[in-house]
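On clarity, I found the account of how folds are encoded harder to follow than it need be. For illustration, here is how one protein appears when written out as sequence plus structure tokens.
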Amino acid sequence: MLCLADWSVVALGGVAMLAGAVLLRWAPARARQGTGDDRGFRSSLAWFPVLVGAAMATARLPHLLGAPSVVLGAADAVQGVLMLTAAVVAFRAARRIRSHDVPPAPVGPSPAGQG
């Protein structure tokens, strides 16, 4: 049962990487048509599922394949770097989303005639 759960994590990681690859492939076409976001935003957000999927696959795949402990340690280090990079990408995308929001309303009484 545990082996099935481990393989499902690897499979979900593969699906996430595939979804990210599709996003990376189709995003330039959407940008050319004018239906996509700006280049920096779409590229950073499209890399997120690729990074998370690679980290998920790296977490369990070496153990399932019976790799030696040195390889397991290296895979853990790679997984940490991937998750750190994914966190940086997510924070940068969140900051970019917030910077495109409508500015807050001014504090104080509203001008006459405007609710």
Notes: The two ends are 62 Å apart (CA to CA). The CA atoms of residues 12 and 53 lie 7 Å apart. The chain has one domain: 2-99. The mean pLDDT is 79.
